[in-house]
Amino acid sequence: MQFADRLSRLGTEGAFEVLAHARQLEAQGKSVIHLEIGEPDFDTPKNICEVAKKAIDDGKTHYCPSAGVPEARKVVAENFSRTRGVNVAVENVVIMPGVKPLIFNAIFALANEGDEVICPNPGYPIYESVVNYCGAKVVPMHLREEVNFRFSIEDLKALITPKTKMIMVNSPQNPTGGVLTREDLEAIYGLAEEHDLWVVTDEIYSRITYEKPFESICSIPGALKRTVAIDGMSKAYSMTGWRLGYGIMPKEMAEIQTKLAINNFSCTNTFAQYALIEALTGPQDDVEKMVAEFQRRRDVFVEGLNNIEGVSCTNPLGAFYVFPNITRTGFKSKDLATRLLDEVGVAGLSGTAFGSFGEGYLRFSYANSVENIKEALARFEKFLAGAAA
Ligand SMILES: Cc1ncc(COP(=O)(O)O)c(C=O)c1O
Predict the structure, then answer these.
(1) In a mutational test of the pocket of ligand 1, which residue from 12, 94, 99 has the highest number of ligand atoms less than 8 Å from its CB?
(2) Closest residue to atom 14 of ligand 1, CA basis
(3) Nearest 5 degrees, angle CA 271-CA 251-CA 88?
(4) C-beta of 100 in contact with ligand 1 (< 6 A)
(5) Phi and psi for 232 in degrees, rounded to 5?
(6) Ligand 1 centre from 329 Cα, in Å?
(7) Can you give the pTM of this predicted structure?
(8) Nearest Cα to 242, choosing from 5, 15, 55, 20?
(9) Ligand 1 pocket member 40 (CB < 6 A)
């Protein structure tokens, strides 16, 4: 079959591939502990589900405006203004089926062929995939374990050339759980301003931070004029399957994103947007409970990994991933991830699924019970004790 040439540049997301393989093993009767997919294991809070059911009963089942249901956009504008300490208007908000289409549209709208886009590495693979798809060039920004998976501003400066178009920011970060500091964000923004660059900030883990409160680059005065900020419901409210994301951006960019939506999927699910309103304006206790539980699991996981011979793990400050260093085991990341799944039923991802600087690491999601995490740690330790690299 002959497909369009541009498709050869489109990448994928390792988590979905490993999940499919893990499910095959389970179908053959093998026990698998799922630590591969970045999906909270909690149910969507009941109050949110009830509002969606009522919205269906009330007939909110038709097309809605492509930029989103007006009341939902208003709620997002208010929520974003409050949580980031800024002042955004409804015209700056678009609602889309998840964070992914907002990322896609932002890159698609900004990156010309030959432009350079600075992407965190290890980093969320969809950024690289879409940049390549658009014919632009990915410039990896090395996130370093020594600084808890942040980056050095000198490294970032050295990456900027006359071709640089935009910088992708993701904090709290997938896959490392690293969190950028206010100083990091100010430095990024300073460089963006100096070199006239766009910033795309993926803030999907904004609600899932532990020791330190979340900081957004948007709160830096003036930042919103060159920033596309993206957040959504998938992770904080355990709503991955609902497909709800929102973006805050200059009005002209919001119009472009809306046009792309019209060409692609018309609008976001109408009744789901009523659930978004409830999620953002209703009680937040469930989010707090989920975050507290994630923190408990993180502590068990990090301690357990550091007790395994040959493995070390920094303490992630956000999201729900651990990113242990496995270089002392002698294994390559991909081999180890594959063998852990095939031989002892622990499904995790190779650090290289997140870019070349992910070599020497694995990524495990701790969206699973403490009991399963402990069992996975035991299997991992036993595997390393008995296997040769
Ligand atoms: C950094 C990052 N951005 C975006 C997404 C996708 O979010 P959504 O489900 O809202 O499309 C994920 C999901 O894993 C993620 O880790």
Answers:
(1) 99
(2) 38
(3) 75
(4) yes
(5) -170, -175
(6) 30
(7) 0.96
(8) 55
(9) no
* 144 three-state secondary structure: strand
Top mutation candidate among 204, 230, 354 for ligand 1, by most atoms within 8 Å of CB: 204
- Using CA atoms, how far residue 272 sits from 79, 156, 217, in Å, is 17, 39, 28
Give Cα 363 to chain centroid, integer Å: 13
How much distance in Å is there from the Cα of 245 to the middle of ligand 1? 9
Ordered by where they begin, the domains of the chain are: 5-44+285-386 (3.90.1150.10), 48-281 (3.40.640.10)
Tokens at residue 133, please? 């798809």
DSSP for 276-336 reads HHHHHHS--HHHHHHHHHHHHHHHHHHHHHHTSTT-B-----BTTEE--B-GGGT--HHHH
- Which residue carries 């950028």 as its tokens? 180
Does the C-beta of 365 come closer than 6 Å to ligand 1?
A: no
The reply to whether ligand 1 has any atom less than 6 angstroms from the CB of 240 is yes
CA of 149 to the centre of ligand 1 (A): 19
Tokens of 196: 């006239």
Question: Which of 76, 205, 235 for a ligand 1 pocket mutation test, highest count of atoms within 8 Å of Cβ?
Answer: 235
**Which pLDDT value is given to residue 265?**
97
Rounded Cα gap, residues 292 and 303, in angstroms? 17
Q: Which amino acid is at 148?
A: N
> Running along the chain, 389 residues long, what does each successive block of 10 average in pLDDT?
93 88 95 94 97 98 98 98 97 98 98 97 97 97 96 94 98 97 96 98 98 95 97 97 98 98 98 98 97 98 97 98 97 97 97 97 96 98 87
Q: Ligand 1 within 6 A of 203 CB? A: no
219-261 tens-digit pLDDT: 999 999 999 999 999 999 999 999 999 999 999 999 999 999 9
Q: Evaluate the CA torsion angle 217, 218, 224, 230 in order and state its sign.
A: positive
